[in-house]
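Blinded run. Sample ID left blank on purpose so nobody reads anything into the name before looking at the predicted structure. Input follows.
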Amino acid sequence: MNGMASTAMRNAGIGYRLNFGIELPRLREIASGFEPDHELAQELWKEDIRESMIVATLLQPIDTFYQEIADIWVERIHTYEMAGIASMNLFQRLPYASEKSFQWMASDNEFVQACGYHTIIHLMRQNPLSDRSAEEMVDHAVFTLSWASNPAPLRTVAWKALQQFALTSPNASAYVVDRMKLAGFDQTDELRAYLDYLGGEE
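Blinded prediction complete.
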């Protein structure tokens, strides 16, 4: 157990039933000593122990991780840390990852939304989005970012998704800027900062 890390996460509001504060490289090392195992991963995920859940994302085989199971898993996520880790270790590798990422982005659950954004970010790093998918992703992210009442970590990951898409080409960046302006990002100082970052200031 890493007591300092566990305490720091708890003080930062990262809550689990149990949290030993073990670092990710150590957990990957532990998982490497086991073969991928569907039943084991499912049992580990149910524990609501940070380390067990992380190891579950490393041991779950892709071919038995059906879409309905993916939805069950994301509904159990209640920290932004786990949303990012599960998306990186498992969700981005799913054959239906793109479809699920858009479903999750449209959820009312902030952690499910975060899984959608994290997953699509990883997918964009691998392959460009189709025009239709890009439009849908940008609309979701701009909407999420525009509401100050949304949790800051959710707005942050939505912004990262927009940045990732904007990096793909000058046209993509210009498209994001146009959608932001249409959503009124040039009307307040806070939102205008995002436009300025992308070079969309007047």
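Unblinding after everyone has recorded impressions. The mean pLDDT is 91.
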